[in-house]
Amino acid sequence: MNTRRGFLCMSSAVLMAPALLRPASGQAQAWPARPIRAMIPFTAGSTIDIVSRIVLEPLSAQLGQPIIIENRGGAGGTIGTAAVGKAHPDGYTILINASAHSAAPAAYPNVPYDTARDFSAVSCFGSVPNVLVISPQKGVRTLAELVIRAKAGSISYASAGVGSATHWAAERLRLSAGFQGVHVPFRGGPEGLTEVMTGRVDFMCAGMSSALGFIRQGTLLPLAVCTPKRTAALPNVPTTLEQGLADSDYTFWNGMLVPARTPRDIVDRLHREMQKVLALPSVREKFAPQGIEPMPLLPAEFDALIAKEIDINIALVRAAGIKFN
User: Fold this and answer.
1) CATH hierarchy code of domain 130-225
2) 100 touches 163 (CB < 8 A)
3) How far apart are CA 113 and CA 230, in angstroms?
4) Residue 29: what pLDDT?
5) Are 249 and 172 in contact (CB under 8 A)?
6) Protein fold of 35-127+252-320
7) Could you say which DSSP state residue 237 is in?
8) What is the model's pTM?
9) Alpha carbons 109 and 38: distance in angstroms, whole number
10) pLDDT band at residue 303 under the 50/70/90 scheme
11) pLDDT category, 291, cuts 50, 70, 90?
12) What is the pLDDT of residue 323?
């Protein structure tokens, strides 16, 4: 009996040995073998946070590993982004960001990472409409009335931080309309929307995902959408372009990036899995009411878009003489 038991134990050890050695010799093939951290560089309840949670839950199911979300807002998304830039490029730290990513070099010349070189784009979730909202108590009912009031005196506008998509959309609107204003940055979109609802800040070009609920409640009034065409989420609200403000539209994309030097097979796997997620009827159903438009891009195309936007944003800041504090 003892001899048989000893033989079985020895046999088990021999059978287990290859399994124990396999992850070390094929680590990339074993990915993901543990939970993944997803950094969202804006506060909970912001547009990028809402969109991220819609796609990360099914992505987690497909990968067979938990995805742990960390919200680290501040400085237009650059604080959380910097943390990912320093992370080990092993596929276990991902960045969920928006077009604030490509605006960072223009808004933060001394940001502690290289926006183009320190990250690899994976998948673009789509573009989210920015909507110009104001408190109904302000007595302003149209974009034209807002511009007249702004040119006649002081006006303030909120954002989710310097260089965020909400900031950039407001700057493009302001430059096109030709008025000055006081920029009031916050750590995230929800904080800015709260101040607009109270009337302490005049308006905000907020992401549709975070603003739509308040619009439906009647606590915020939409004056325009900052998109090339009207959005299905608010079909009766005209665009800023329709209302005569040339070059006032802004593409507010949302997507996934990873640290540069992340193995290519992991990047490609993440891209493939994200395409499956974005095609899910349940995800499309959640995207549709918010007016999120598809932006199907390959990783290389997404990288190229970011590089192009970096140059455009830097040129815009220089041409307009915008000063960031």
Assistant:
1) 3.40.190.10
2) yes
3) 36
4) 55
5) yes
6) D-Maltodextrin-Binding Protein; domain 2 (3.40.190)
7) S
8) 0.82
9) 25
10) very high
11) confident
12) 72
